[in-house]
Amino acid sequence: MAGEVALSEDAPGLLQRLAAWWPREAAEAVRIALTAIAAVWLAMWLELALPHWAGWTVISVTLATRAASLRKSLWRAGSTLVGVTVAMVLVANFAQATLAFDLALALWMGLLTAASSVESGQRAYGFASMGFTVPIIALADVQSPETVFQIGVDRCSTILLGIGCAYASNVFVAPGVPAVSRALAGRLEAAAEACDAWMAALRRGERPGPMPIAAVMTLGEEVTDTFTEQPSLRSGGRGIRNAAPRLRRVLAAGLLRALLPDRPGSRSTDLIGAGGAIAVRQIGRVRVSARLLRAGGRVGRRRVPFRPHLLLWNDLDWDGWHAFDNGLRTAAAVLLVNGFWYVTGWSHGAGAATWASLVCVLLAAHADPRAESRAFLVGALLAGVVGLTVRYTLLTTTGSFALLAAVLLPVAMLAVVGRADKRAIYGIGFGFFVFGVLDPKNPMTYDLADSLNTVLAELLGMAVAAIAFAALPPPVSAATLRLRARRRLVRSVRGAALDPALLLPPLDRYLARGFGRLALIGADDAAARSGERLLVIGLLLLALRETDDREGRRVGGAVWARLAASRPAGPETAPDPLRALADRATLPLQAERIGALAALVSDLDRAGWPNLDPGGRA
Fold first, then answer.
1. What gap in Å lies between CA 188 and CA 206, rounded to an integer?
2. Do 494 and 459 reside in the same domain of the chain?
3. Which residue among 11, 298, 383, 440 has the highest number of C-beta atoms inside a 10 angstrom radius?
4. Which pTM value belongs to this model?
5. Which residues span the domain enclosing 286?
6. pLDDT per residue over 34-66, tens digit each?
7. Is residue 85 part of a domain?
8. How far is CA 167 from CA 61, 67, 80, 597, in A?
């Protein structure tokens, strides 16, 4: 007994010493690498053509959380099926028309790159996967286009096998419902606390500082991840789902209060159309939801409905011009590589076209695609050296799977760590490419000249993609992105003022996109203050039109005329039409909204805002 007590007392120190030389990341890398090797073995046993696809799929879809892994797996499976179908359609219709096939492929890659660029997270990856699956299938064997169906079936089978292996492995380490609930409850409490502190500073008359936009904006994705990982939490989870919209309305009401601190009359939440809910109560409801979630309680048993529209688009801000630039770059790169392939007649040119397409569409939605494409190329170059060296030295000694597994284990661990650790900037390219260079098959084939040609062609495609990110056209600067965010914010206000009622966005979507634009504009304090004022102007216009669309359209026309005027209309030159409209308002609340709009418009600094700056228009 004494020995057992001593062991238990020393256990924490022993675990710390073990963690010093065997960290959790290393254990995860071993687990994922072993799972990838098992997937390769199963693909060989099932006699699939390219087993390395299964191994890389395991590494690709295994993310930091089980929820993110499940979402990526679903997108990977669905996008592969769509991509394979499109590849079959292209080959069936344009197998004998080279130019038409090239144009159709470039158009498809450009469209999917644009779609990926306006999305975020796993949705962006899903659209990218739909894009790069097409050249992988359609260009796999250009000499025998009739085999495209078999290649497509083989890829679908291999990808689904890898996803199944990854899911089975994740089951053993996935946290249970209590752990997931506690983690989300902590995030809900942190966001509610940040909003409460900001509102408390406003109530005390202090300068509150920047709004806690980031803490609120990330809640939506975290709630979605939690419902994906533990679907049982959907039962009675309406309060959890509504936490982010509630806090966004709290921030909007606080923003109106900060902009018009001396305004008498109704509460700010009533003016913006937030259902009359007081901000303190909204924050309290979020805290109650967090406490119930932490304790394992529920508010009723009604399930939160699944919103299928979020599979196709999100409620966050997106840059259409940025998406257009990315799509144009990908289409140009694909046409350029295909033209080089056909002019030179290089037998391995399909590999260059495939990898140019893959890198362009995959990295377009990343924060710095120009630097990441160069890092991808360097990582792939390292993978080519390692893969060819291992394949033509160690793997030629025997045909046993034990040797192949022993070789794949450290290589797969490097790929896992490189993909998961952001500090390993060359990791994505290494992990993506090394499995294809090793090309484990049953039986293995060895042709050094063919392997060198294949690797060279694929590296050439990546180099073209890196050049394309630097010049076709180059990624826009941060200043241009901020200018575009201002333009989108102005456009949203104009839409709230003048668009038909059918096209008006819901309040929550307007706030989500508006706060996203403010987050981009926030580097400049003066622009941020004007952006906050414009956001509230649009919000009040939406509330006006929701109550009385005809009256709201009249007020919206007057507001936009004031905003877009060449010079501010002074009270000495003409009466303020908004004041007259406030006097004729049908309801006292409508009159208060119009009065608030008049005050906000009159104090707006329009310098530097597209379509509003009097000095910026000829």
1. 25
2. no
3. 383
4. 0.80
5. 177-229+237-298
6. 999 999 999 999 989 889 999 999 988 888 777
7. yes
8. 9, 11, 17, 54
